[in-house]
């Protein structure tokens, strides 16, 4: 088996329209065309080839936390991200330096999914 890369992450959301506003307007991800599935959702591009797929009609509770289930998006400048999130009146924690010297901010989407925004300066 030769796994090449992570293609997409699927995130269950209760209200697709509210989540579109968060992922597009707060995180600044470009929205992609989506096939005509028989359930609501939206797709967003991350970087060159990776994606986040929102899947609508979530009815179960979300169990997410910075030290539990979450996903991380790498950014090039954590201070610029902090400035941009403040300008958008977004609620977030950090930036905080990790023990490996890299920096992270955590933000929570409208459904309670924790998202780490990280600047990687040091690799182990």
TrEMBL record:
Pfam families found in the cross-reference section: Glyoxalase
Q: Which domain of life is it from?
A: Bacteria
Which of UniProt's keywords are assigned here? Metal-binding
SUPFAM superfamilies registered for this protein in UniProt: Glyoxalase/Bleomycin resistance protein/Dihydroxybiphenyl dioxygenase
Q: InterPro entries, from UniProt?
A: Glyas_Bleomycin-R_OHBP_Dase (IPR029068), Glyas_Fos-R_dOase_dom (IPR004360), Glyoxalase_1_CS (IPR018146), VOC_core (IPR037523)
All copies of domain VOC, residue ranges: 5-120
GO MF terms, alphabetically ordered: lactoylglutathione lyase activity; metal ion binding
Name of the protein this chain belongs to: VOC family protein
Q: Which organism is it from?
A: Xanthocytophaga agilis
